[in-house]
Amino acid sequence: MDNLTRLGLYKTMVLSRSFEEAILRDYHADKKPAWDIGAGLIPGEMHLSAGQEPVAAGVCAHLTADDAVTATHRPHHFAIAHGMDLKLLAAEIFGRETGLGKGRGGHMHLFDPSIHFSCSGIIAEGYPPALGQAFAFQHQGKNSVAVAVTGEGAANQGAFHESLNLAALWKLPVVFIVEDNDWAISVSRDASTSIRSNAVRATSYGLRGTRIQDNSVEGVWDAAKTAIERARAGEGPSLIEVQTVRLWGHFEGDAQAYRNDLDTLIDPIPAYANQLESDGILTPELVKGIAEDAKSRVDDAFEYAKSSPFPSAAEVGNYVFA
Amino acid sequence: MVLIDTSSASVSTRRLTTAKAMVEGISQEMERDPSVFVLGEDVGAYGGIFSSTTGLLERFGPHRVMDTPISETAFMGLATGAAVEGMRPIVELMFVDFFGVCMDQIYNHMAKIHYESGGNVKVPLVLMTAVGGGYSDGAQHSQCLWGTFAHMPGLKVVVPSNPFDAKGLMISAIRDDNPVVYMFHKGVMGLPWMAKNPRSLGPVPEKPYEVPIGKASVVRTGKDMTIVTLSLSVHHALDAADDLAQQGIDCEVIDLRSLVPLDREAVLESVSKTGRLLVVDEDYQSFGLSGELAAVVAETDPRLLKAPVSRLAIPDVPIPYSRTLEYAVLPTMERIVSAAKRVMA
Ligand SMILES: Cc1ncc(C[n+]2csc(CCOP(=O)(O)OP(=O)(O)O)c2C)c(N)n1
Ligand SMILES: [Mg+2]
């Protein structure tokens, strides 16, 4: 793995984190003193992906804008790693007419056809549409692949199992990603799942299954490289499960009283910075520069979002039908 | 004037939130009947995302209060199967919007088994689920969808709007020998982290009591027009009625409380008196509750009406995320006032 690639992975993770730190700040800023989920410039549920950036960065490094990604209710890291325009993303989260979905969707419903990106708030329901995108790519003679993401909690949903079987049966160019962050809201993986590894489930359906045990961006990058190359070469679907970490609450406002692992969590971004520094790829100055660069891109996006108009109530009925 | 039917229970001054009233109802039934148990996502240590099960795990333990995997088809079916064998499950579907992943278990099994078995098999369970919008949760987490459930033969549907009814309807639902879909609006629960109507805290008797399923409640009497509504919209309608009273329009407000069975008599009795009907419904407008109520009047005697039936419902668009759009489709107090004035004009 070359230095430029490693640096690229780091930058992607930092950009995603920088974006989410800004969301975190603005989300809570105007919900005081009485915290009201529906109040403020960013209302509604907010699921942030801090800690899970290695998964998105490692996978999306192998994708182009012609490849599809179907993400979850926790979509920002994949959206950003897959190259979504930060301005359109921020404007959607701020509910503005200039957002990806003109304020109709919100943070769980991001649709960006220019990079074949979508996500859903219904658990595991991003897997089936990825099959269709992969099917279409195959029939259109394209070399593209579809990447479908879920959490480990979602892997107990029927749609997950049906999708694995169909993808293997029809040898579709799909790569399934499972982000195992140990938790599905308050329910731990061990309390919800009869076996330890979804790679085993994948194998039983005839897919190539891999489990990455350490939230390492380079481990994800390696596994994704193989899986995506195989998919492009028509060698069929794979599943990659990554042991990752949810650094923050399930959604913002989650007190996490159920959680007993909070002081064992390792933030993968400073950990990777340390690794790259000791390998002589990063310096403290570079780390600072990368953070500043990310922050200024995020600031621009937020500026754009906040100065954009709200949708007009008179147009609420637009886009129900084409 | 607010008329709450307290005839079935002693009048109480103790005040609870709707969420706490629901939990108290569940808890007292679990005490009384060992066949009652609770299952669903995050109903254990978390106490339910909308506090519908707070404290039950601590009180009754993990054999009667169970967190499930995110496998709605499996645990919805499990509830049905357990009910068939004589237990009385309370199964939570976290948001009603998620019914899509498990509807077969609900409408083809839970709802139809009693009929298909010629009455030989009973399915006594409660399917409780959170409904409604108003806090920018977007198109997949803000729907009411009670019309969808009420449309399916075999499911009773109850929709409490206040703490008193929440407890009484929960107890009735648990004791009922049919599957009862119990739909609670997040905005009536009295949650500390969401804007709340002052009436989400109210008097609740400590003793167990039933609120009869299928009986509406006249929550305000008036002579000029009947506003029929349910759930959170009851509060908006009451606020609107106060406002309209200042403008010389005297509204009667009916809280349906149950959709199945529907208290047609209560609606007809009121409309016979007022001659005007406005239905306020946070569910989608077409093919639903508002049309059903118009049909009730039309089929009985359209001459009861001095003005055409009017409906204020979600105008057949998905619930938008952005607040400006969402509040353009929700039946807010302001929109009820305007709609009522149009009925009187
Ligand atoms: C069908 C369905 N059931 C339940 C939910 C509620 N819900 C939202 S996120 C979540 C937990 C998901 O856990 P996991 O798949 O591990 O993803 P994570 O949140 O950890 O990223 C649940 C139960 C939902 N959105 N859709
Ligand atoms: Mg998880």
Structure description:
The complex is a heterodimer of chains A (322) and B (345). With 322 residues, chain A is of the alpha/beta class. Chain A is built from eleven helices and eight strands. In chain A, a hairpin with a 2-residue loop joins strand 5 (183-184) and strand 6 (187-188). Chain A is globular and about 50 Å long. The relative contact order of chain A is 0.17. Chain B has a seven-stranded mixed beta sheet with strand order 3-2-4-5-7-6-12, sandwiched between helices. A five-stranded mixed beta sheet of chain B has the order 9-11-10-13-14, with helices on both faces. In chain B, strands 1-8 form a two-stranded antiparallel sheet. In chain B, strand 6, helix 7 and strand 7 form a beta-alpha-beta unit. The A-B interface holds A 35-39, 43-45, 95-96, 101, 103-109, 120-125, 153-154, 156-159, 184-187, 191-193, 253, 257-258, 310-314, 316-317, 320 and B 41-42, 44-46, 49, 67-73, 97-98, 100-101, 134-141, 192-195, 315-318, 320-325, 327-329. Thiamine diphosphate (TPP) sits between chains A (72-74, 121-123, 150-154, 179, 181, 183-185, 246, 250) and B (41, 70, 72, 94, 98, 101).
CATH superfamily of the largest domain in chain B: Thiamin diphosphate (ThDP)-binding fold, Pyr/PP domains
Helix content estimate of chain B: 25-40%
Largest sheet of chain A: 6 strands, parallel
So, CATH architecture of chain A? Answer: 3-Layer(aba) Sandwich
Q: Per DSSP, what share of the residues of chain B sits in E-state strands of 2 or more residues? A: 15-25%
For the largest sheet of chain A, list the strands in their spatial order.
Answer: 2-1-3-4-8-7
The SS-based structural class of chain A is alpha/beta
Specify the oligomeric state: heterodimer
Heteromolecules bound:
thiamine diphosphate, magnesium ion
Radius of gyration of chain B: 19 Å
**Main β-sheet description of chain B:** 7 strands, mixed
The CATH architecture of the largest domain in chain B: 3-Layer(aba) Sandwich
The end-to-end distance of chain A, rounded to whole angstroms, is 46 Å
Shape of chain A: globular
Chains forming the largest contact: A-B, 48 and 42 residues
Which residues of chain B form runs of ≥5 with pLDDT under 50? 1-8
